[in-house]
Write a structure and sequence with these properties.
It contains 9 helices and 12 strands. The strands form 4 sheets. It has a 6-stranded mixed beta sheet with strand order 1-5-6-4-3-2. It has a two-stranded antiparallel sheet with strand order 7-8.
């Protein structure tokens, strides 16, 4: 397995340079240039575009403010980690960069990736994706967590918020220290003193509910339906990862949080990857992390869902 921790993503100091230098020349010998720019709607963090080039090809571009280039470098590392497993499809990352905005209306950072053409879904789309996800969860992870079992070689983002990935030997301690505690600290102003005592009890007794996995798994980290698209091969591909090494159950739980995937997906996954007994009792605890993150990103409308979960494990 290659070590992606030293991966160097090609970087350019302008979009024009990236297109002409990295994507090369046209069939007629000229330099590739952008001749069409179409906004793609979706997502609430970055702007997205289809760039049509003079050679007839298309490129997908994400942009954000200049100072947020780190969003893209860690996204590229996450996609590279998933791609390295060989288990499931991801868009090919071309390069990242910054642009001073002289040719546009403002400076920005960008990420260029393979453009997804919108292929027709293959037969048994969800069953195939389930088996590929299980293969991802079975893939070796030691290259990503030097000195421990759980975490990742760098911190990254869950949505627009930082996600801590300090390497731990214990899954339970990792989930407490790097997932729940930072979110509760950020959201502390939403809770009363009595509610905070329940939070303290939850955090200090996580080992009463969570189990150490039989082996660490590479996780997508934010696996809801919006982050699964149909790739150019007609199979399900992953986008927008929040990658880390953890318990496979955390990925599976996330798929069930916002409506869930089709029944055949879960049946096929369980045929390949045997869950430890009691997953259903742990599922909401994994998703508490996601609900807390939504509380911290979008506000108090998520507080009641957070408290319902806490009550499930700590009582009224």
């Amino acid at each position: 397995m290659d070590d992606i921790t030293g991966m160097s993503l090609p970087h350019f100091d302008s979009l024009e340079t990236a297109i002409s230098s990295f994507l090369g020349g046209t069939k007629s010998g000229g330099i590739s240039q952008i001749i069409q720019k179409e906004r793609i709607i979706g997502g609430d963090i970055n702007l997205a575009y289809r760039l049509g080039l003079t050679d007839g090809s298309n490129v997908f571009m994400k942009t954000n403010e200049l100072q947020n280039e780190c969003f893209f470098t860690v996204e590229a590392a996450g996609l590279a980690a998933i791609a390295q497993s060989g288990a499931v499809g991801t868009p090919h990352v071309i390069c990242s960069g910054t642009d001073d905005g002289r040719a546009t209306d403002g400076s920005f950072s960008f990420l260029l990736m393979e453009y997804i053409q919108g292929a027709k879904r293959n037969r048994h789309y969800w069953e195939t994706f389930a088996r590929e996800l299980a293969a991802l969860h079975e893939a070796p992870t030691a290259a990503f967590t030097s000195g421990g079992k759980f975490g990742f070689f760098q911190d990254n983002y869950i949505g627009r918020r930082e996600q801590r990935n300090t390497v731990h030997d214990s899954w339970v301690s990792f989930f407490r220290d790097c997932r729940l505690e930072p979110q509760f600290q950020q959201a502390a102003h939403y809770f009363s003193a009595a509610q905070l005592r329940k939070v303290d009890r939850l955090l200090s007794h996580l080992d009463e509910w969570l189990l150490e996995p039989e082996h660490p798994s590479l996780l997508h980290g934010d696996l809801w339906s919006g982050n699964v698209i149909t790739g150019n091969d007609g199979k399900a591909w992953m986008i927008d990862p929040a990658v880390y090494v953890g318990h496979a159950e955390a990925d599976l739980a996330m798929t069930e949080l916002f409506g869930g995937f089709p029944r055949q997906f879960y049946e096929a996954y369980r045929e390949v990857f045997a869950l430890q007994p009691g997953y259903e009792r742990r599922r909401d605890l994994y998703n508490l992390y996601q609900l807390l993150n939504h509380l911290n990103m979008f506000g108090g409308s998520y507080f009641s869902s957070v408290m319902r979960t806490i009550v499930v494990y700590c009582g009224n």
